[in-house]
Amino acid sequence: MKVRIPTPLRSYTDQRSLVEAHGATVAEVLADLDRRFSGMRFRIVDEQGRLREHVKVFVNKVSVRELSTPVAPADEVTIMQALSGG
Hints:
Strand content: 15-25%
Number of strands: 5
Largest sheet: 5 strands, mixed
Helix content: 10-25%
Number of helices: 2
Strand order of the largest sheet: 2-1-5-3-4
CATH topology: Ubiquitin-like (UB roll)
Distance between the termini: 36 Å
């Protein structure tokens, strides 16, 4: 499946905004991304195994919060990070 990568995480993907990943759930997709792009999962998932508060994940443009959300090979997963500053 295709995974859209936000600009702050593109340093992990050689600046690619779109990568391929495999898995039957959002958690498996994130684990696959971490195998291919070491360290990426830690920026998305916290120590308790939940999506970080500033991260949003969409499956086919529908926001999901559960890592157990099922995905299919034809789905598109989009990862978004809120940016803040002052």
